[in-house]
Write a structure and sequence with these properties.
The complex is a heterodimer of chains A (112) and B (449). Chain A has 112 residues and is an alpha+beta fold. Chain A has 2 helices and 6 strands, in the order βαββββαβ. Classes of the chains: A alpha+beta (112), B mainly alpha (449).
């Protein structure tokens, strides 16, 4: 089992979600997050004075999937979240020890 | 034979005709008693209409308190929103009472010296004159006094001790505003001030209300010092964005709406010039909003929302003095200039003077109030005269000296006694929690300290 964490532009969430559902992803968790990468935020003007937006708003998607779905999932996220501009985000993949469905007590891939 | 009959018939009818004409004529002839009755009734209707119009206008001006509260809270951070509401609420509460017990008599009482009124406190003239008009007039004047007082709140936002603001509210509504008011407007009731004797024109209060408040705001912002984080170590201004621009915009719309009571209502007469004044007021506001947007676009690269909002207010403040004696085209020119002036003034005060005025109150009310009062002489419909320009300028300077100097001393005294500014850690945490024990938006996660 793998856990996929993808940081994407907030306005790309709908497209990513729709196609992930189409390829059979059954659930996801979405969080509004803020942060910076190599872009290091940007400078805005307010009433003629500058201010830094260091932490840029992003959306984090968390999905848990069986190993065989990893490539498909990643390509769907990349395809739908990419604008080609700086700040498109990142995908983190990690191995997951176990999953438990609280209602039934099922474990492992059964519980996804 | 036949013609004889007709003639005799004619003569028979003649007296009847004559009587009919005479009685008709008699109805049309002057009847002194009847005319006096009619005139009295007309006067009574006019008087009642004046009362209705003046009260409606007073209630519109009262609503401007809500406008100020929304503008100020929108342009400042969410951690101080509750504090701004309290300041706007309590300056009206304290101002109403102070103006009843002290302010009104000083402003409109019998004025032997020309510098302050001496009677009519607590609306006591009702016993002397037995005229209910004094209630209407008081109601109309108290909301003007409160407008002047509440201007300061925005310039001193996010760092002023609440108790210090309460003391200031009392002093401006009881003394500072009414004394200056007696110089210009005392003649509207029992007084007669030295400036109005010289022919000073400030129809609805560019100077009396707005500049007095604006210069008090400047004194307050200087004595307080800038908010923490407003200037970096090199003295370069940093932006502290307001937390709710739609709220600030709502406030400006409410103020614009309230101004239709402020200026046209200052006739205190139903009819006459109110329509023209409403047109002038509206045109100046529109012109001010337009040029502020263009100026911001050219200087700051974007049609900045908050500058455009300030521009509308700048036009409104500037036309307030001359709204009854300039033409609609004159009003547009005054508004156009005020819109440019307010943006330049905001940048000048922030970048050159290094005074932190979070909402632009000094520029909108102080600077544009002074400009509008002088513009009243320049664009006077009845013709320009140097003597009028001199008197208008004298009034503007008097307002600056009176309000700025007195308020500077007042804020210094407060600073040395009860304290003017909250502690740095209180300022960082926000005045909502530290001064009032509640926050404006408890259901939201605090985004920044």
């Amino acid at each position: 089992m793998k856990k996929i964490e993808a940081i994407i532009k907030p306005f790309k969430l709908e497209e990513v979600k729709d196609e992930l559902q189409e390829i059979g992803i059954k659930g996801m968790t979405v969080t509004e997050v803020k942060g910076f990468g190599r872009q290091k935020g940007h400078v805005e003007l307010y009433r003629g004075a500058e201010y830094d937006i260091t932490f840029i708003p992003k959306v984090k998607i968390e999905i848990v999937i069986p190993d065989e779905l990893v490539d498909k999932t990643v390509s769907v996220i990349v395809k739908n979240a990419r604008t080609g501009n700086i700040g498109d985000g990142k995908i983190f993949i990690s191995t997951l020890d176990d999953v438990i469905r609280i209602r039934t007590g099922e474990r492992g891939e059964e519980a996804i | 034979m036949k013609s004889k009959k007709i003639i005799s018939l004619f003569f028979a009818i003649l007296p009847i005709l004559f009587l009919a004409v005479a009685s008709y004529a008699q109805e049309q002839l002057p009847n002194p008693a009847g005319i006096n009755d009619a005139m009295k009734k007309i006067e009574e209707v006019q008087k009642n209409a004046n009362i209705v119009w003046t009260l409606v206008a007073a209630f519109l001006v009262f609503f401007m308190q809500a406008g100020f509260a929304m503008v100020e809270s929108g342009l400042t951070r969410s951690k101080n929103a509750s504090n701004i509401m309290m300041k706007n609420l309590m300056d009206y509460v304290i101002g109403s009472l102070a103006f009843f017990f002290i302010g009104f008599g000083i402003m409109f009482g019998t004025n032997p010296t020309g510098f302050f009124g001496t009677d009519g406190f607590m609306i006591s003239d009702i016993a002397k004159d037995n005229d209910l008009w004094v209630y209407v007039f008081w109601m109309f004047q108290v909301v003007f006094a409160a407008t002047s007082a509440t201007i300061v709140s925005g310039a001193m936002a996010e760092r002023t001790k609440f108790i210090a603001y309460l003391i200031y509210s009392f002093v401006i509504s009881a003394f500072i505003y009414p004394v200056f008011g007696s110089w210009c407007w005392g003649g509207l009731y029992h007084g007669k001030g030295w400036l109005e004797k010289m022919g000073f024109i400030d129809f609805a209060g560019s100077t009396v209300v707005h500049s007095i408040g604006g210069w008090a705001a400047l004194a307050g912002a200087i004595v307080l010092g800038p908010r923490l984080g407003k200037y970096d170590s090199n003295g370069k201004p940093k932006a502290i964005p307001g937390h709710n621009i739609p709220l600030a915009a709502l406030g400006v719309f409410i103020l614009w709406f309230g101004w239709f009571g402020f200026n046209p209502g200052s006739t205190t007469v139903a009819g006459g010039d109110a329509g023209k004044i409403a047109v002038n007021t509206n045109l100046a506001a529109a012109a001010g909003g337009l040029t502020a947007m263009i100026t911001a676009w050219l200087l700051l690269k974007k049609p900045e929302t908050t500058m455009s909002l300030n521009g509308v207010l700048a036009g409104l403040v500037a036309i307030t003095a001359g709204c009854n004696n300039v033409s609609p085209v004159g009003s547009i020119i005054i508004g156009l200039i005020a819109g440019v002036l307010v943006v330049l003034s905001v940048l000048f005060i922030e970048k050159i003077l290094k005074v932190d005025d979070p909402v632009g109150a000094v520029s909108v009310h102080g600077v544009c109030g002074a400009f509008g009062t002088i513009a009243t002489a320049i664009f006077n419909e009845a013709g320009f005269s140097w003597s009028m320009l001199y008197v208008q300028t004298l009034g503007v300077i008097s307002a600056f000296v009176w309000s700025f100097v007195l308020c500077f001393i007042l804020f210094k005294i407060i600073s040395k006694t009860v304290g003017l500014r909250v502690k740095p850690e209180e300022e960082l945490e926000g005045l909502d929690i530290t001064e009032h024990g509640n926050i404006a938006y408890p259901d939201f996660v605090q985004a920044e300290k």
